[in-house]
Write a structure and sequence with these properties.
It is built from six helices and six strands, in the order H-H-E-E-E-E-H-H-H-E-E-H. By secondary structure, the protein is α+β, with helices and mostly antiparallel strands. Strand 1 and strand 2 (about 25-30) form a beta hairpin.
Length: about 150
């Protein structure tokens, strides 16, 4: 899977877990916690029990390198060699390098920067939970990739 596809896969969830006005990012939610109604004025989302929000800083988006866009992964997800570029012709090459096939970056939604949590603010206990969840997600992705290779 192209890194840009992985970036797009988690973009919506990531944006729901960011507060650009308060410069905070949710880094953990208890696994069994049901997501709340975003329009419920009773409970400010950054004060909800079972969620851990920490301060964040802006960093250049790793998906687009701070450009806000990249070439559509459907065009060059595995790269285009010089031989393939020659086969596709000069018109394609001109369009490719002029940005005709560019799409808005899913990681930063075109803003060129991303909120990144300040990890020093997260307790060791929560970091262990985050690491555990990350390992489980990585295992799930590996199993899914293996199943896809087997034709499932």
């Amino acid at each position: 899977m192209d890194y840009r596809d992985r970036l797009a896969h988690g973009a919506r969830e990531r944006r729901r877990n960011e507060d650009h006005k308060k410069m905070k990012v949710m880094v953990y939610r208890e696994p069994d916690l049901v997501p709340y109604d975003e329009h419920d004025p009773e409970v400010p989302y950054h004060e909800r029990d079972g969620e851990v929000w920490v301060d964040a800083v802006y960093e250049v988006c790793t998906g687009c390198g701070g450009k806000g866009k990249y070439v559509n992964p459907g065009i060059d997800s595995n790269g285009i060699t010089s031989c393939e570029m020659a086969e596709l012709g000069p018109e394609f090459e001109e369009d490719y390098f002029s940005g005709r096939f560019d799409v808005t970056c899913d990681g930063c939604d075109g803003s060129r920067v991303m909120l990144v949590p300040i990890w020093d603010q997260v307790s060791d206990e929560i970091m262990k939970e985050i690491d555990k969840l990350a390992e489980e997600e990585a295992l799930d992705r590996a199993i899914h990739a293996a199943e896809m290779r087997m034709g499932a």
